[in-house]
Amino acid sequence: MTQDTDTKSDSLLVFTGSTLWAALRFSLILILLCGIIYPLASTGLAQLLFPSQANGSLVKDDEGIIVGSELIGQSFTDPKLFQGRVSSIDYNADASGSNNYAPSYPELIERMQESANSWTANNPEVPVGSLPVDLITNSGSGLDPHISPKSAAVQIPRISSLTGLPEAELQALVGDATEGRDWGVFGEPRINVLKLNLALQQKIAELNP
Questions:
Q1: Chief localization class (predicted)?
Q2: Which residues contact 99 (CB under 8 A, 6 or more apart)?
Q3: Is residue 64 located within the same domain as residue 87?
Q4: Domain range holding 159?
């Protein structure tokens, strides 16, 4: 009886040891595949096929200095530049998101009224009734880098007055900066505010060498 018990114990130990070793080997293989090979392969392919996107879609000025990303908006307070959307998080990418207020929520109404009042003060040439809604509303993430072409167009009189650039020249800048729908179907025409302002600053520099 004792011999049979010892035999069973030895067999159990062998089975347990074999199972543990198999589990360990399987874990090591998964770590190698999923933790090393796959990340290196996907990173390498991304750098090869989509280097700009893989590195954050960074935007550089004429001197090669990084000034931002195509994917994250910025706050432009200089009235001579095009303004982007309202951001309740001040375009802080560490805290993306915005309050999901209903249209009747008092705080939302108050914020939109403040934006409308600010618009009237800085753009007396354009009535507030012509103000596109995307200039006084937050995006879902609070980081939207784009505005609609109409939102850029209504800012032209102010910028022309402050910079001395002809409105026709500014309209041409807006037209050149307008991006179409994705695949010609998805989304709406839009303008990246950072890219547009870089082009605008270049025009201002040419006007005042």
A1: membrane
A2: 88, 107, 108, 138
A3: yes
A4: 57-207
